[in-house]
Amino acid sequence: MKNKIFILALLLASAGCVQEEMTETRHFHAVTEGVDTKVSLGERNTVLWSKSDHVAVFEDNELAGKYKVSDASDGEQKADFVMVEASDNRGSIGANLALYPYSSGLTASQKASDAYLVKGVTLPQVQQYAEGTFFKESFLMTAAADADKSEFSFRNACGLLKLQLSGDITVSSIQLKGNASEILAGAADITIYNDVRTPSIEMLEENASTTVVLDCGAEGVRLSPDEPKPFYIVLPPTAFASGFQVTVVDVNNGKMILNTSKANPVRRSGILTMPEVKVNSADMDVPVRAEMQVVSTSFDDVKIKVSVTGAVEYTGGYKLKEEYNVSNVLREANWKTSPRVSDNFTYEGSLKSFPAGGSGVLMPGRSYVIWLGAYGKTVKSLKAEDLVTVEVAVPAVTSGGTVSAEVKDVRADFNSVEVDIHADGASMIFAAMLTQNEMMAKSSDGDKISYLLNKVAPVSGEMATVTRTGIPSGEEVTLIAMAVDAQGHYGDLLEGSYSPAMPKFDDSAVLTADIGCEARTMKVKPVVSNGDFQHYYYLVEKSVSSAWTRILGGSLASAEAFVTTNPDHYLIKNTVDVPMVDGAIVIDGIEIGEEYKILLIGQKADGTYSRAFMAVFTPEVDLGNFIYNTGDTKDLWLASQPMVTFGTCVKDGEFAIINWSVMPAEGMTAYSACLTSALAEGCTPEELVIRIFNNGTKVIPDKMETMLYGDDTSAVYVTWCDAEGNFYEPAMFVVP
After folding, report:
1. Distance between CA 675 and CA 688 in Å, rounded?
2. pTM of this prediction?
3. pLDDT of residue 314
């Protein structure tokens, strides 16, 4: 082994939010052998040597020998070091080079008369935390000297990022990533100069990493709420022109993301010091964990165990296996149509009582998918991989039961039949009311039992009520039912036939109506001859609506029969639920210029109906002497224009939410709407007034809001009219 002595010196200057460069000096010392410690920061951020630091030295050779720092140099800026492992001899490079830290596989070559390339360098992706200093294995330093010299003046190749954290958490790790995905670790080439020029690092694509992790050890680093603790990350010189992101992870795997989009360069031989940041446990995004398991199953229930931690809220439910669809579940969950429960949650009990969702009904012999999704501070929208699912098969019921179902009460209306069923000692009851057509395919008891078990949700307990509405006039319906005992055995089949009551008409009473329109409000005033009706059923639909043919049958007679036998149908309105105003039925939101059909039927106190009345009506609006924003009327138009003020307008996903207010000029009545370009373009001023009427509202409040889907070219339009009823050409206001 050669006993050649080399002398090392280095100095690193600090930077606050600005960068400062280090000054580099040359020293000479003898070297001795050392033991294991590390490079660290001394006063004024000088870089200090530690015992047993390993240095690679190329003694006019393409291959490096291995050297160590002496004991005497421990904790000093200046150091002596001695060879502990010689290299094989390979080609001359015309100089002596030194590289800290040492690693095997390094090679050197001469690029120019005073420039040398070292390959095989690696910047670790994971750095180890050290109190008050940095990870030595990442902090590259280089030196060059003439081949006959044994004196080195080391120069720093990297820089430092200094984070200052305070708070109440214990830091497990810190991850750094550039917003432009800069390469921060991995393979690198270093160019060393035998003159005043500083070394340069070229990060390679090979084994490249765009992140650097500072590992704070198994026990972590406890922060102080009062005094910031420094964390140093070694980095190659990097511009970070778009800023960077720092993720602080605590020992509970909670996360806080710190982000800056401003340019923050880390320069060679400099420290980029970031401002103090408080990191408290209350601000950490704790990872969401959701677990679920089936504890037990029976024909009438499933017991589950659920645990959710780290969640802001969670949602869940269950569906028949064949009906479970991930896309639909996610849509329901993320649009908040499924139930939600806040905070962490533990549940053990019946699936039917699961508070996060469910129908409260389980069908024996069927398989279900139970699902659970939890939302954290940053998990605002669930994805398929966020769902926890469990499939469970509910045991089937079998024959051989001794509990029988019986009819307790029957109630029939003009279009419906309702039957109460009772079974002493029953655990559940299956019951259905079927039409004649539905019964045709169920000729045997086996067919009927199979239908109940596979198509009908049972009712728990000893009582059940089954209802069938919308029964056509003169038709009969059949009840089929059976009870299940506590052991899961069903008894004898119950079967019975029933018919709804028939409606009665008063042919002597004549019903007509007076129909008028004001703006978008239609008023239908019943006119009765030789009769006294307590309330009215009515339907107002556009003439082009398929409801007239698809539901009402396409004729006055079929419409009359439908309404009188289906008065509770969702299309049918009545003056009990929606009282008349000044003796008239008021229908808001109609469209100007569209043809409507109006169906009206009266009913007396004894339940007797009038014959149906039908009329066709097209709402219109009188624009008066129209005032244009041109010619002789332009000054009048300008003088009367309302003032429009926009509030908060945001784009939320595929929807635009627009808020605005309208202040009409004195003596004017205004109407306003937010219209997409597709609705507004190509219209005459008069047609645009109608579009505003049909899509907007009269300005009674001064604040309005609308939501538009998938359109960025919307604008607010306002028309107004004076006391004489003259309308003005609409004004357009661009949404900011």
Report:
1. 10
2. 0.48
3. 80
